[in-house]
Each structure stands twice: as structure tokens, then as C-alpha cells.
Specification:
Strand content: 25-35%
CATH architecture of the domain at 261-423: 3-Layer(bba) Sandwich
Mean pLDDT: 86
Order of helices and strands: HHEEEHEEEEEEEHEEEEEHHEHEHEHEE
Radius of gyration: 22 Å
Number of helices: 9
Number of strands: 20
CATH topology of the domain at 261-423: Glucose Oxidase, domain 1
CATH class of the domain at 261-423: Alpha Beta
Strand order of the largest sheet: 13-20-19-15-16-17-18-14
Length: about 425
């Protein structure tokens, strides 16, 4: 029997943390694994021995309301990440990134820590790493029948200070690849010209996965890393069990069929067999459906009239909405469209580029999601049903497959890490 890292294997809200700490101490006897200081503290306490010989772990320090976040250790000119250490995320609760993290220089660390303490009860200060954000989800894929590394990487972004890089924890256009967790074989390759993804994949294959097996870990995990562009290495900044957005129903591939599409860009587990409604690029006759979905997702702002709402609701209800290239707006526009499609009765969605994958956190610190309207759309869009992103090339292939049927019917399955599309 293969060693399966079950993405549903961690039970939140139990005494599992104590049991796991004892289990790890049997193998790592010279380390302290505090189990009563919050999920983030526990995750970082195991990061050092787990990542030894693989990744760097930036120095960190926990604070509570009883400790002063102005400690004497903040004496340099360094910049710090002020991270929440709340009971509803990481090892204690299924939320990932349920509270906002902040980046602050030494003069403002204490103020930011006190502010965050007021909302979540605990804070971790961690040395800030510079580079491109990565999220690695690791676990057993029922669809592929193997342990996989799903690697999401942020994108280059121009800002007022010049070129920087995003993080998949909030970037809805982050790229995602799939790799065999024991060999590093690319299942869905991830090619970038700004960071060597193998600098993350190889240490997982060679060090992290074997060490997890040695520790007798049998559940899925999520890792946050920052890849250094200059050095070609990565800092491990967070470890947690597979979040709630990855856990869920167990689905299996349809027997006797070959998938048309395999992707790591999924938002949740699920299975849908339904007719397809295609949304084209927003020109001519297809402009109205786009506008109606946007308005519908904007929760009451410029709500469409019955003349536009009723026909589209009838057309989308019970259907898989297939957004062709150009049909989705960027950033918050796509969130409103996705939320609007759920409200109009869609049961699943497919897009060329990512709308929301479950590498993304439960909340976002990015500026375009600061309004309450956008945040509401974000929460609704990510949880309304299975949503797969398949890229431009596979979108063209799938569109050709759909043209051969009247009406086109597709079968979507997602195990939380991997999504596949089959003929209906």
C-alpha cells in the first residue's frame, strides 16, 4: 500500500496537535513543539526541523496581549511581517489567511502588532523575505492516484517602486503546475523565465517528502514560500495542514474515460455533469450576458432588469458556464462575473485564466479587494461551486470538443488538488 498523504486526514478542532507533537518528538527529540500558543506558532516550530537541508526559515517570534511587541530583538533596520496567530486558521482551524498580514519596518512593528492583536488574540513577527511568492499544496490526488505537489507561483507586476512579484495567496492569475511528489516528474508543467521552479520541487522530492514519511505524517499539507530571484533558493514561511478549501468530498475519475483536460487550478472539490453555456468575448450580441453577470454579482448595484435577468437566468440555470478568452474582466471584474454566474444558477464554471484557486487565502490584502462589495464577491465567487482554470490552449481544445455536440455536455471532477474535464 502506498503512503497516502490524505488531504482530508487532518481533523481540525481536535487534540491532534498534541498527538502530532508527541509523534514528531519521537524522531526529533531536541526540539520544542509548543501546542498551546496557536496554529501558526506550532507550524513554524516544526518548519525548522522539517526544512533542514531544504529551505531557510526566517527568524520569528510570537506575541500575545501579555507580551510587549516592542521587544529588544527588534533593533535592526529590518522589515518584518506581522502575521496573525488566530484560533480559526492554520493547525487549529480550517481557514488559511483568515486574517490580514502586514509588512512593517522596525518603527511601526509594535503598532501593527497591537492592532492585529486586537482582532485575533495572537501575533507572530517574522523576518520579511524578498522574492516571488509560492504556495505548494501537497497530498494524495484521488484523480491521479498518486501524491502530488501542486505548485502555484506569483507573477511579475509593475508598481510605483518598479518590478515586483505577486503571491498566489491573493493573485487570481498565478500560474499553477502539478508534479509527482516522489519523482518530481511534471504532470502539468510550470515554466517561468524568472524563477527556476525546480529550486522548490527538488528539495520537496529529495528532503521534505521523505522526512514527512519518516515522521509518519499521513495527511496533506500546504506550504508558503518566498523564492529568492537572485539566489535561486526559497524561504519557508508557513506550514499548515490542507486548508478547508481543499478538504471535502472524495471524488474519483470516471472509469473507462480519458480526460480532455487536467489542471491544478481548482477552487474546491466537487463533481458536476451538465450542459455547457459558452460566453464569448463580450462583443456584439454577447455583451448583454457579460453585463448582466457583472451587475448580478455586484450585490444590488445597478441590478439588471427582468428583461435581461430572466432570459439569462433561464439559460444559465443548471449549466456549466464556459468563459472563453476575453469574456472575463481582470481582477475584481472577474469576481463579480463568477459570483453573478452562481446567482444566475450556474453549477460549475470553466475559464481560460484563473478566477480563484484554492491556493488563494480566505481573504486578500490586495488593494482591489478592499471594498466590502469586492470582498463579498470574493467570498461568494470562490465557494459557489467547482471552478476550473485550464489556460488558453486547452480552452481552444475544449471548445472544439464542445462544437461537436448539440447540446454540449461535460463532466467536471475535482479532488481539491487536481481538476479534470471529461466528455459528458
Amino acid at each position: 500500500m502506498k503512503h497516502q498523504f490524505d488531504v482530508n486526514g487532518w481533523r481540525y478542532g481536535t487534540s491532534q496537535i498534541e498527538d502530532l507533537a508527541d509523534q514528531i518528538r519521537e524522531r526529533v527529540s531536541d526540539e520544542n513543539f509548543p501546542t498551546d500558543q496557536g496554529g501558526k506558532v506550532f507550524g513554524l516550530s516544526i518548519a525548522d526541523p522539517l526544512a533542514k537541508d531544504a529551505f531557510r526559515v526566517p527568524r520569528w517570534m510570537p506575541f500575545t496581549a501579555q507580551t510587549d511587541p516592542c521587544g529588544s530583538w527588534i533593533w535592526t533596520n529590518s522589515t518584518w511581517m506581522v502575521r496573525s496567530n488566530a484560533a480559526d486558521e492554520d493547525w487549529v482551524g480550517p481557514g488559511a489567511g483568515a486574517h490580514t498580514s502586514m509588512t512593517r519596518g522596525p518603527s511601526y512593528v509594535a503598532e501593527a502588532a497591537r492592532e492585529l492583536l486586537g482582532t485575533c488574540g495572537g501575533v507572530v513577527l517574522q523576518g520579511k523575505s524578498d522574492g516571488v511568492g509560492l504556495v505548494v499544496d501537497f497530498g494524495w490526488s484521488e484523480l491521479l492516484q498518486r501524491n502530488v505537489l501542486r505548485v502555484a507561483i506569483g507573477m511579475p507586476s509593475m508598481s510605483g517602486s518598479g518590478l515586483s512579484y505577486t503571491s498566489p495567496t491573493w493573485d487570481n492569475e498565478a500560474r499553477v503546475g502539478l508534479f509527482d511528489a516522489h519523482t518530481g516528474e511534471a504532470i502539468v508543467d510550470l515554466n517561468t523565465n524568472y524563477f527556476d521552479v525546480q529550486a522548490v520541487v527538488r528539495p520537496f522530492v529529495d528532503v521534505i517528502v521523505p522526512r514527512l514519511m519518516e515522521w509518519r505524517i499521513k495527511f496533506g499539507l500546504q506550504f508558503e514560500l518566498i523564492g529568492s530571484l537572485r539566489e535561486g533558493v526559497a524561504d519557508l514561511v508557513q506550514v499548515r495542514p490542507s486548508p478547508g478549501s481543499i478538504q471535502g468530498q472524495v471524488v474519483q475519475a470516471p472509469s473507462g474515460k480519458e480526460p480532455l483536460v487536467t489542471t491544478g487550478m481548482v477552487n474546491m472539490p466537487g463533481e458536476v455533469l451538465a450542459e455547457v453555456y459558452m460566453v464569448l468575448d463580450g462583443h456584439g450580441r454577447n455583451q448583454d450576458p457579460l453585463e448582466v453577470t457583472i451587475m448580478t454579482g455586484q450585490a444590488g448595484r445597478r441590478m439588471p432588469t427582468a428583461e435581461h435577468w430572466d432570459p439569462l437566468k433561464e439559460a444559465l440555470c443548471g449549466k456549466i458556464v464556459f468563459w472563453l478568452p476575453g469574456a472575463l474582466q481582470k481582477y475584481s471584474g472577474s469576481l463579480f462575473q463568477a459570483a453573478g454566474a452562481w446567482r444566475l444558477g450556474a453549477v460549475a464554471q470553466i475559464s481560460a485564466w484563473a478566477i480563484l484557486t484554492n491556493s488563494a487565502h480566505g481573504t486578500s490584502t490586495n488593494s482591489y479587494l478592499k471594498s466590502e462589495l469586492s470582498r463579498a464577491a470574493f467570498e461568494e465567487a470562490r465557494a459557489g461551486g467547482p471552478l476550473l482554470c485550464i489556460g488558453r490552449e486547452l480552452t481552444r481544445l475544449l471548445r472544439r470538443e464542445c462544437k461537436g455536440e448539440t447540446p454540449p455536455v461535460l463532466h467536471i471532477v475535482s479532488d481539491g488538488l487536481v481538476g479534470q474535464v471529461y466528455r459528458g
